Amino acid sequence: MSLHNSLHDELTAAQRCLDDLARCVSRLEKHVGSGLEIRRVRSDTEHLKESLALLSATAPRPRPEPHAEMVTISDQPYDPGLWTDVDDEGLGARDRHAP
């Protein structure tokens, strides 16, 4: 995951949290009334939402993940000439013996 996508995910998560906070403040207001304290909390919540919107507007946009290019590998056998003068892994060359 790129840094930009991670940033976008964090901004989205913060927005969801602020939306939840706004809903909770509304429910609290029903219980405690619309006094000075709850108005301050509502105002602070709105300021946070505005600040996050500004941050989101100035944050770098997520880049799409690069599309992995599909490479086709032929089912045809390889040219045996490619394997002349090579060592077998762990066995050494075919015409030599281990010491």
Total of DSSP H or I helical runs spanning 4+ residues = 2
Instruction: Kindly name the structural category.
Output: mainly alpha
Query: Which stretches are poorly predicted, pLDDT < 50 over at least 5 residues?
Result: none
The end-to-end distance, rounded to whole angstroms, is: 51 Å
Largest sheet: none
Helix content: 40-55%
Shape: rod-shaped
Radius of gyration using CA atoms only: 32 Å
SSE order, as H and E?
HH
How much of the sequence lies in strands comes to under 5%
Give average pLDDT, whole number.
84
Overall number of strands: 0
Give an overview in words.
Helix 1 packs antiparallel against helix 2 (36-58). The longest helix is centred in the N-terminal third of the chain and has 30 residues, at 3-32. The mean pLDDT is 84. With 99 residues, the protein is mostly helical. It is rod-shaped. It has 2 helices and no strands.
Tags for this model:
single chain, about 100 residues
What's the gist of this structure?
This protein is mostly helical and 99 residues long. Helix content is 54%, strand content 0%. Residues 59-99 are annotated as: Disordered.
